[in-house]
Amino acid sequence: MNNTNAIYQSIINSIERLTSQESITTIEEIYNDDEVNLAKLYDLEESLTNILGEINSYKEANAFFDNFSELYDLLSKNAEIINHQSNISLKSLMYAIKLVRLLENSFETIPEEDIIPFSEFTKFDEIPHFIKSQFYLYTGNEDYENAMVFINTEDGIDNLIQSNEEIPDSFVILILNFLANHNFEQNKKLLIIKSPETEITINKAISALKLHLVCSGDSYHKIETTQRNNLNKFKETISLSKNYNQFDDSLMILSEYNSRNELLNKYLSIYHLVENFMCRFPLVRLQNNNNGNMFSIRNFRDMYDDLDGKEITMIRNFFKVIFSENYRSSYFLNIAHDKFKNLVNNSIMTEPDIDDALIKLGMINKGIALTYDTVSNYSAGQVRSELPQKLADMVYGIRNSIVHNKETEFHLSHEYMEPCIYDLINSYVLDILELVLLDLICNENDIIWYSYSRIKLFED
Q1: How confident is the model at residue 458 (pLDDT cuts 50, 70, 90)?
Q2: Closest listed residue to residue 121, CA positions, set 185, 175, 182, 160
Q3: Is the separation of the CB atoms in 15 and 51 below 8 Å?
Q4: Which is nearest to 83 in space by CA: 47, 44, 131?
């Protein structure tokens, strides 16, 4: 196919199929006795037929058709009518028109013979991978080796061609050539490559595309977001007489938490608050035990012993206190149990999905997986003795799944975020953490509140 054919053919083919008797009959049957829309259909058919004749004339004369803007507006205005047929992809046709218009100023300088070896390129149009980028172009070397073009119409075609984006004429013509046999309604993504290898798999090509994107400073992954910035219910507990200034670091963490919408980053922010409090707790306890009196080296040694343990042990010890009868009479523990049961009772999640999420997050002890049925049927005694540790293990397990990326461990990322894990984190774990951690800050207590602003090291 020579350049002139490549430039015009996809548009000509689409208009011919759109004005075919098959397409017109299909739309007629939709509108049946709707005279207004039938009249619009016949006007559209006549206009397109006339434009098609003009385009063919310009193609034969090897000249640039100067009325593509009118054609684009006509199609856009009648999109609802056109979309009742399936012979063509309106999205593909309109994108082709946008591309051709890029050649308006250079058309006369484009040679008739091929300026790019169409037959040496490979097209992939069934792309199951999620890639958020709308358009990417790499031209390769002078022989176009390793060149690639990626087009994604998931979000429409309006932003596919940016005003500041330069696409070489040869690649405009290449894309137009492949659009002649591509339907963006059926396959919303298109990847065109020229590989040194004669055979290349889709997975290999997509991996190369992903590497191109990250090397360009872009991201390609799906981002799981959440809107959880409404903590108004705690405002009524704030008192100007209290020393909240001791929580400057904690408030900064919460400010970062509110500024983030990506679920995983948001989770890590609130986990930093858990870490802050679990390390603060032994110091508060030591200060309270001494009643503001002089600290000894033995006191510090005992405190460091508390801080020198494994992180999971420290979180369990901290959760054992905040979810105990000694703090708000087990108020938060009972809420945590009720909210867990209500995940199913209120149809937020299904029982199998909860079990699946718990297994993936490593909630298995001595070969026995924690299940919704087990936790929801805890007796009052089991809620007190078992649930605080299970909550600590869940919070710590999610953190590990995000920050660890070992081959032998489950790694939680946006790309592999299953709905069941998203729902468990967003609808349960973050709910519980927000509730108890904000309460610890807003309401004075002997768990994380310092009673004294200084550590006394000797008597005056």
Answers
A1: very low
A2: 175
A3: yes
A4: 44
